[in-house]
Design goal:
six-stranded mixed beta sheet, 362 residues, six-stranded parallel beta sheet, 3 domains, elongated, single chain, 15% strand, Rossmann fold, 434 Repressor (Amino-terminal Domain), alpha/beta
């Protein structure tokens, strides 16, 4: 049987503090303080007694008080674009897991692409004395981040970063995975390719579209302009973008999407119009969110591992703030790779099913 820890009763008014731990462990208050703050000079046997007392008393150290004593908050900020896209909760989970492993905490800010909201998030992080910030918004908001740069707070960005000694970049190799996707379609026999991008003002979306066009050129394909549509990385944006493609005179036999949410929205529209995936049209996403495996049909997509992004972002920040990791790298490479499932197949024969006539009226 597992013994339950003794807990304070609801009626108890007394709140445990560092003095109670010191008394229970039969050590000085200073020893408890230095143990909690992991000062390496504390005698190992005394430290063991302190941690045992902390566990037996079910005492929770005050992290703010520890920060005052140690001069470190051990708190990293994590800025994301939106909480509704499953990619970002999966990224948060990976970042938090790594942070906990290394005795750090995280403060999350979701900008929702709103500059005012981002400014509030940054102010909160400065007020909480974060030691570094991972800007995982896939877009540069330079002027809003100047406050962090001016305070010498280390940061890590995706794709591109402002020039600064305390800034690192996560360089995502979009080209590798997207090239694999285009070559996969080419090997199946597709030559009529479309692409739904994300907001084109974002650097990451530009890179994904450029990777698609250059990869298409490699196999001798030049997509028709009406098959290149800008989306917004949402389900609704994917539905609207695919609807726009379906309103054209001719249809592509395959469409690659800038993220999985866009692709899932596209699948919805195609199903509503009576077009079969992949028999009538093939679809490829990007990100490989957990949901991609469970939609119908399971989505072929380019995998950008959240754990790789999270681990690289955390390592980059840690290298800036810890003496033992003083060799801060300016750039961290993130690989991408195609994951083939059931949303891609051979193009329809004779192109008869690629005309607009096959699509049902809205």
């Amino acid at each position: 049987m597992v013994k339950k820890r003794p807990r304070q009763k609801k009626g108890d008014k007394k709140r445990l503090d560092i003095r109670d731990v010191a008394k229970h462990a039969r050590v000085s208050i200073a020893t408890v303080s230095r143990t909690i703050n992991r000062v390496p000079t504390v005698d190992k046997e005394l430290a063991k007694r302190v941690w045992k007392s902390i566990e037996e008393l079910n005492y929770f150290p005050n992290t703010q008080a520890r920060a005052l004593v140690s001069g470190r908050s051990r708190l990293f900020g994590l800025l994301i674009s939106e909480i509704t896209n499953p990619f970002f909760p999966e990224l948060i989970q990976g970042f938090e897991d790594i942070a906990i492993e290394n005795n750090y905490e995280i403060l999350i800010g979701s900008t929702n692409y709103d500059p005012e909201r981002m400014e509030i998030c940054i102010r909160r992080m400065i007020e909480r004395n974060v030691e570094g910030v991972a800007v995982m918004t896939f877009g540069i908001e330079g002027p809003l981040l100047e406050e962090l740069v001016s305070r010498n707070i280390p940061m890590v960005f995706v794709d591109a970063a402002p020039p600064s000694e305390n800034v690192s970049t996560l360089a995502v190799d979009y080209h590798h995975g997207i090239r694999e996707g285009v070559q996969h379609l080419g090997a199946l026999g597709h030559r009529r390719l479309g692409f739904i991008s994300g907001p084109i003002q974002q650097r990451s979306c530009q890179l994904r579209k450029e990777a698609f066009l250059s990869s298409a050129a490699e196999i001798g394909v030049q997509p028709m302009p009406e098959w290149l549509v800008e989306g917004d990385h949402t389900l609704e944006g994917g539905m609207e973008a695919m609807g726009q493609i379906l309103r054209g005179r001719e249809l592509p036999t395959a469409v690659m999407c800038s993220n999985d949410m866009t692709a899932i929205g596209a699948l919805r529209v195609l199903a509503n119009r009576g077009l079969r995936v992949p028999d009538d049209i093939s679809v490829i996403g990007f990100d490989d969110i957990h949901l991609a495996e469970f939609v119908y049909p399971p989505l072929t997509t380019v995998r950008m591992a959240r754990n790789d992004l999270a681990r690289a972002a955390f390592s980059a920040l840690r290298s800036h703030v810890e003496p033992a990791h003083s060799h801060a790298r300016k750039s961290w490479h993130i690989q991408t790779k195609l994951t083939v499932r059931q949303s891609t197949g051979y193009p329809p024969k004779a192109g008869l099913r690629t005309s607009r006539k096959t699509a049902k009226a809205e």
